[in-house]
Amino acid sequence: MVELRAFDAAARHLSFKKAAVELGVTPTAISHQIRMLEGYCGHALFRRRPRPLSLTEAGARLFPIIRDGLEAFATGIAAIRRDGDKQALRVTTTNAFASRWLVPRLPRWSREHQETPLEVIGTDSVVDLQAGDADVAIRYATNRKAPKNGIAEELVTDRFWPVCSPQLLPTEKRLRRVADLKGHCLIHSYWSPADLDPPTWQKWFTLAQRKWRDVPEFKDMQHLSFREELHAIEAVVAGQGFGLFSSVLVAEELASGKLVKTFDMPLPGYCFYVFRRPDHPREKIIRRFSRWLKSVK
What we know:
CATH topology of the largest domain: D-Maltodextrin-Binding Protein, domain 2
Strand content: 15-25%
Oligomer: single chain
Number of helices: 10
Shape: rod-shaped
CATH superfamily of the largest domain: Periplasmic binding protein-like II
Distance between the termini: 46 Å
CATH architecture of the largest domain: 3-Layer(aba) Sandwich
């Protein structure tokens, strides 16, 4: 391809020097590439003497073929690039993050980037970006276990707060002591065994017993567990018990007053990362999406 481009430029300009300027190389490089093409064809393509430079019969026959071919290549590649820009950008993340954080913000992306639709893949399984199953991922991990084998950019970090519906609180709208939790139900959501130190109610009670007196025994509490974190959040909003949730996932409910923090002792959370493979052909669009995510936090 390099030799063909050198020949095309030299044939159009009838000058190795002008061809070199167009292609950003030296005249010597142009001359070398032309000689390589002549060696492959078995014919001289230019008359170098006497000056000015001119095409031989073989060069004159080859020039329109190469010119039209390069134009066809350029047109085809441009069309493919335009089609690629219109293809949906496939974004994978957890079901909870997709529902609670990403989806409410999607109308803004649609308004600002109409040329690039999104396809959101909500799953709690890890989608293989290297295999091309998605273009970009928003993954949830501790700071010590940021996603590997790709480019990970921090999006937002959370903390886990004990929360409940205001209808469960006494008239003064707060619990005076952790002992007041007795008789209430603790709402749990599933954590994978791969998470070695998850922010759970059991961990919160262990820390609470070191900080306060009269903390109920964890085993004496009522418990209700959900496999899906989204269902656990819905149960707490409905007033079915107390939950321990990510400040990112229940930010809207806390802001609106549908949920309230009950005790000033959150647990450290994890971090959401925007993760991509380094050699993705749609790198430019993925970078734009990553910048947009950070701008709408």
